[in-house]
Design goal:
There is one protein chain. The protein has one helix and 30 strands. It is mainly beta. The chain has a single domain, classed as Kelch-type beta propeller (Neuraminidase). The strands form six sheets. Strands 1, 27, 28, 29 and 30 form a five-stranded antiparallel sheet that branches. A hairpin with a 5-residue loop joins strand 13 and strand 14. The longest helix has 20 residues.
Length: about 475
């Protein structure tokens, strides 16, 4: 009995030591849930406005780092690598503007590789022939694009605001596919000129002539059958008018056809909320951009917040905290949580405790994850804190779609908090990223949450960031 007790004490002490050390970089040790909930500063700088260190294209190195940036696009590939593209930020010369560099991060070696695109700003796109991959093809520099990763390991990129050719820039509606196996881009759909209006066709009917109008700040999903979905953003409707949108689209990578599924073909639509928790054919979120999205294990599409229209008939366009669910089978939206009003303060409750009255404040340009147990996670953005004051946030939230309750997990309930970095690659309960918006996120094959960059607060100063964080056990 005494030997068994000693063994139990040794095992417990060993696990506690591993937890205190953060398990090292890229570990695959899964500690008990009691050790969950620590941030680790993994890579990048704890100061703002850093230039990129590109190294040699195609070669990983410990010294390589993407420059500080915001509104980039991100993917997780089938091998567990994290990918990052473009955004608005710093190139290799320390100049700030719009980028088209493609990076890969290996969570095991903790090294970045510059894979494609330029190490300089303002690069135009090279489209080649639609549908034909080529080594010379590359999307132009852009920010606020959207992205998907498919089951074959391909990375998909749509739209944003940026460059199609030299001197020709604006809102984009080009769809691209990148194959990591061949290192080649393919221009798949949409136009190679800017500011295109949408061609909607008939709602619910796929057609080769359909395509979404040019836009930035939309949100995306990939369903279990491999279809790409996008919603809203700021861009061009069917009449060529540029404003915020609430159209929902589906793209089939096999037929290469778009289907307009839900919402309006004209901009600036109010939300139709109906009764909270009740699906209805008439329900639809209002037009918005810079929202966040998730897809759950039942193939439901989830949408939260953004900048746009609630149900305010006074004509106000501000910040939202409404949570919606869309069922691709019934084609119905459900208003699930939050309010149908604008600029709501957060109700935080007690950190770590779920409650039916908790909900994040209104915000845009947050980041989101879906964990392996189906929980929805939300971090930061620009929005309203617990006092109803607007600013950059660093609060981490978890939503349980079974209990319909939010939990404030980490970070502050007030705006403008600086980061606490601790020691690089060592997890600690006191570590936390600073407040920020327009960062990017991933969830890796081990269920860990990853966060990169954005515009916000590092260790005491404000600017554009290139810090990489990991959250989890």
């Amino acid at each position: 009995m005494k030997s068994a007790l000693r063994l139990a004490i040794i095992v417990f002490s060993f696990l506690a030591l591993l937890s205190a050390c953060g398990g090292g970089g890229g570990d695959d040790i899964h500690l008990p849930s009691v050790f969950a909930g620590k941030w680790t500063w993994v890579s990048g700088s704890n100061a703002a406005d850093q230039a990129g260190i590109y190294g040699t294209k195609g070669t990983a190195a410990a010294s390589n780092l993407p420059g500080a940036r915001m509104r980039a696009a991100s993917w997780l590939d089938s091998g567990g690598k994290l990918w990052l593209f473009g955004g608005s930020g710093y190139d290799s010369a320390g100049f700030i503007s719009t980028l088209n560099d493609l990076w890969e991060f290996d969570p095991i070696t903790l090294e970045w590789t510059w894979v494609s695109g330029s190490n300089l700003r303002y690069e135009p796109g090279t489209y080649g022939t639609k549908g034909v991959a080529a080594p010379s093809n590359v999307p132009g520099a852009r920010y606020s694009a959207i992205s998907w990763s498919d089951s074959q390991g391909n990375l998909w990129l749509f739209g944003g605001y940026g460059y199609v050719s030299a001197g020709n820039f604006g809102e984009l509606n080009d769809l691209w596919k990148y194959a990591p196996a061949t290192l080649e881009w393919t221009w798949v759909s949409g136009s190679n000129t800017a500011d295109q209006l949408g061609v909607y066709g008939t709602k619910g009917t796929a057609d080769s002539s359909n395509f979404p109008g040019a836009r930035s700040g939309a949100v995306s999903w990939l369903d279990s059958s491999g279809k790409l979905w996008l919603f809203g953003g700021s861009g061009y409707d069917s009449a060529g008018r540029s404003s915020v949108l609430n159209d929902l689209w589906k793209f089939d990578p096999t037929t290469l056809e778009w289907t307009w599924v839900s919402g309006s073909d004209t901009a600036d639509q109010l939300g139709v909320y109906g009764t909270k928790g009740v699906a209805a054919p008439s329900n639809v979120p209002g037009a918005r951009d810079m929202a966040v999205s998730w897809r759950d294990s039942q193939d439901k599409l989830w949408l939260f917040g953004g900048w746009g229209w609630g149900s305010d008939l006074a004509g106000n366009v501000l910040y939202l905290n409404d949570l919606w669910k869309y069922d691709p089978v019934t084609l119905e939206w459900t208003w699930v949580s939050g309010t149908n009003a604008l600029n709501q303060a957060g109700i935080y409750g007690t950190k770590g405790t779920a409650a039916p009255h908790n909900f994040p404040g209104s915000r845009f340009s947050a980041v989101s994850w879906l964990d392996s147990s189906g929980k929805l996670w939300l971090f930061g953005g620009d929005g309203n804190d617990s006092a109803g004051t607007f600013g950059s946030l660093n609060d981490l939230w978890k939503y349980d779609s079974t209990t319909l309750e939010w939990t404030w997990v980490s970070g502050s309930n007030l705006r403008y908090e600086s980061g606490t970095y601790g020691t690089r690659r060592v997890a600690a309960p006191s570590n936390v990223p600073g407040a920020r918006y327009s960062a990017v996120s991933w969830i890796d094959s081990r269920g860990k949450l990853w966060l990169f960059g954005g515009d916000g607060y590092s260790a005491g100063n404000q600017g554009w960031l290139n810090d990489l964080w990991r959250y989890g056990r």
